[in-house]
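[09:14] KT: can someone run the structure on this one? pasting the chain below
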Amino acid sequence: MFSIIKKWFWYDWILVTIRTLWLVIVASADFIHPSLIDAPLWIVLSLAFVVYLVPLIVRHRKEDRYLAVEVTAAGFFHLYLAYAAPGLLWSFVLLVMVIGLASSRRTYMWTGILCGIVFPALNGWIADRLPYEFIVSCSLGFAIGFAFNILIQSHKQAQIIQEQKLLLEQHIKRIEELTLMEERSRLSHELHDTIGHALTSLIVGVESLRSSVPDPQIERIDSLVGIAQHSLDDIRKHLHQLSHTTLSRSLSESLRQLIEEFMKSTGITVHFRVIGSETLVIQKINFCLHRCLQESLTNAVRHGQASVITVQLHFDSQQLRLQIEDNGIGMEEVQFGFGLGGMKERLKLFHGTLSVHSVPGQGTFVICNIPLQTEPVHDAIRLLIVDDQAIITDSLKQILDQDSDFIVVGKSRDGLEALEHCERSQPDIVLMDVRMQGMGGLEALLEMKQRWPDMKVVLMTTFEDSLQAATALERGAKGYMLKSIHPREMKEALKLIFSGGTWIDQSVAAQVFEEMKRQREQLEKISSSQENHPYGLTKREMEILEHLSSGLRYKSIAAKLFLSEGTIRNYCSTLYSKLGVNNREEAIEMARTENIV
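[09:31] RB: done, structure tokens below
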């Protein structure tokens, strides 16, 4: 019952206030005027409490029967009062106002006739009084209540219009962003084939000569690389001016921005605190904890019905810990369904752990731990380098051959040649350019993941492109990096990918995450519009359930529907929640048992 009260609006409280005032008047009548009630007081009070409570219970369990119960209970109780306490018949006006407030355009005719004419006339006849005054007062009370109901409906319509306006503004803003991104992508592709190739080749080529240059000349090497890198940075700066996306520079800033947006959209109070001295973490860990916090906040409101959430981010020399505590209803038994299971899988990629503690009535406590020092990679990583510029492949091979953790098994000039090489050498990682003569990187990536699902593919490009990066990740790429990346950072990224992680260049990661966030918001809006399907499933959810029943995995469904795998996972999370199941197997079994698909 308390959970229902928390969802009441201001007009629900007005309705309850009027009913409570009516009950107080009836209950205190005998104390103010002892001769007002002729019947036994306990009978009158018992019936009054029934009239007060039963309609409220029915309203929140079977709302379609509420008005019938309310009119019947109020009407017959006041017919009884016409015998037992005629002086209290005027209190019927208060309940008539409540009935008018709850009536709609489909029901106001019969509720108005009964409460404004029939019952007042019967009351007056039973009490041996002229019914005109009762009819006039009750009709006026019903008119006031129904007029107030019209104001409430107008207020709701205004809210809906305001939401539609905000949605339209977001849509227009999105169109503007897509236009800018398209122009930026066009410029990027043009510069990629001209200045970008030249500067990138210069950087990689000079870096490959570092080990063979005498120490006195190292300073000149650094100077040449710095000039080329500075030129690339200037070009990127001009390209970034076409985009409004801001990049989060630290983990705490990223989480704080997420929390502020969450509080703004839900109205839930969230307290955020950073403990310890913050250290820089790779973007992938940032994204992992960002998603863990996002899932925890959503669970706290959707399932836990929390009103206050406390988030703490702990930094120490050995580990990184994110704690989320809420004051919700809690759980008797923690079930690692789709949401918590996804968090656990994300953390596992970084040797992290997930702990969830919950007690009914005492909220839920979530702890995400990630060690800051991971075990080094001991096995040599077998690499295939794919690029249509020989100077790039030769330079990268020379850089990687200097590290005992890597073995370059071959070089290819385009995607088709890379597929043939993969057939022969089966490399651990394919480091491949996006744009090449002949078969490009994205096309080759799709073919590689179909033929060798476990093979890890990392795409390289000259300039960052969020749409290109998102497409690469959707097709199964494990990394997206710029060719101008520092060799040391590139090696660490390749080791992370080899150990099971994913790496995205920081300059484009925030744009990709923002795109994922927009997809999630659009998904929530789409999910809110339910069609006439079982369990309130939408057309898209029914389509996904059919694919699940056919044995398709998330990636295959995403490819068929031209959506990202993350979007499919979000759809499935909502789908499982509506069906009341915890995983794919239970959803498929329920769909087949109840003939949903």
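[09:33] KT: thanks! The longest strand covers residues 308-315.
[09:34] RB: yep, looked fine to me
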